[in-house]
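Example record used in the benchmark description.
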Amino acid sequence: MGAGAAVKASARLVVSLDPHGNSVVRVLRSQSPLTLVPHRRAGPVALVHLVSSVTAPLGGDALELTVEVGPGAALDLRGVAATLMLPGPTGAPSSSLVRFTVEGSVRYLPEPTVVTGRAHHTSVVEAELDGHAQLRTREVLVLGRTGEAPGTLATTMRATRCGKPLLHQQLVVGGTAADASPAGLAGKRVVGTELLLDDVPRARDGGEWWSVVPLAAGGTLATAMGDDVVTVTNVLDAI
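Model output (structure tokens):
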């Protein structure tokens, strides 16, 4: 692969329950820069870290991660460092796709994503849940490095349960007018969302720069905005 060449990479993770009640990684296939690192100790929840083994995504890269969690199994999938979305030498856009099939429970908690100047990225998360499955996922976006105007990022979240829609949401950041508008990000540099899909009823709530919205088919969507990552993550933790 030549310097600056675009990367097309895929990874797959399968977790199921063993006879002792432990959630066990059955399939783990990584392809640079998507590196999956499992925690070796057995337990009711399988812990796997998602590590970017090289700087990615760059413009032109296309990354795909498939995750399957079987009945009764639980997975905690975490990042280890912030993701920098960077422009490539050709100006081509980059993309990422994370696809979940869940019959147990999943927590997907990547580290914040920084949308650097001139980057152009599309991010999609898709989840298919069975009748009793649970999913918690968080996304924290930082618009540019310090003193830098951000590139553009379009994120899409689609979730279904037994084939019926739960959520279809898209967020686009990096447009100067929209980011500054009171109807958009109101000039805030960091925006975080946390999706919780379960069968626990919750009421609508909100405060200054944050809100919690119950979903019609079960679950909640929390949103928080702020000037720094610590503030936004603290608000999401409190919610």
